[in-house]
Amino acid sequence: MTIKIFSMEVIKTIDSVRSMVKAARVKGKKIGLVPTMGALHTGHVSLIEAAVKKCEFVVVSIFVNPTQFRPGEDFEKYPRPLEADLDICKKAGVHVVFVPTSEQMYPGTNLTWINVEKLTEPLCGRARPGHFRGVTTICAKLFNIIAPDIAFFGQKDAQQATIIRRMVADLNMPLEIIVCPTVREPDGLAVSSRNRYLNKQQRQDATHIYKSLMKCQEIVKAGKIDTYEIITEMRKVLQQKSSIEIEYISIVNAETLEVIDMIVGKVLVAVAVKLGPARLIDNILIDTYK
Ligand code: AMP
To answer: What is the pTM of this model?
Structure first.
């Protein structure tokens, strides 16, 4: 019988995390990175589990990245339950949790930014200009610091995953990106750190986000593919709850994120709403060729 004795390191500085990862790489271990902002939940755990399966050395970064928040967004109130997060990481088999300070990640005025064009403009890019520039810049920094073989992202943030893949391809970054499926609550709501902002009623109303996506799937299965008609039906589902303020319902080509008229091929159906204090997003992928 083998007993697994497991120790997890919590590291705050770039130098230390670099040397820990280097030691693992020298031993021939495959390095996996799961970048997060913390407030970990079952969605994050699914990424960690995928990383543990594929890699012998798994780093989870926890950093609420200020440059991806716009003024007036929830940067200050974003939940930071570090002890609970570390517990989750330990149980999931993480080797290193990298928890840098803002001073470590942005020691001076940042003059260098990564900006992926076009893909950052539609969907969430419209309401959150500059958001994806912050995301790609912090991911590029993390990729440079950790130098993972594989980085794991969630389909929940579909536009983010598409943009990161494109950055990696365009800049010849030497790593693989794996995108894991969206983890949902039993009633369909996509698990999110921001669900904690909802009161009981808002939490119930939030199920209509997934219901609207299921409505789309149902219509497509029935053979209708006109996106204007589908969006109209999806809007009706969301409007059943007056607490829901629709930011967008978009049906786009899953790779280019360009708006399409007909659902043909690989398609991303994405929704963003405001619900009380929370801005929530969700999506499904439809592939008519499958
Ligand atoms: P965040 O901490 O919100 O920046 O998310 C960190 C990573 O977890 C991102 O790649 C997200 O797409 C992913 N993620 C967040 N929620 C979910 C979910 N419900 N299912 C799968 N992945 C998720």
So the answer is: 0.97
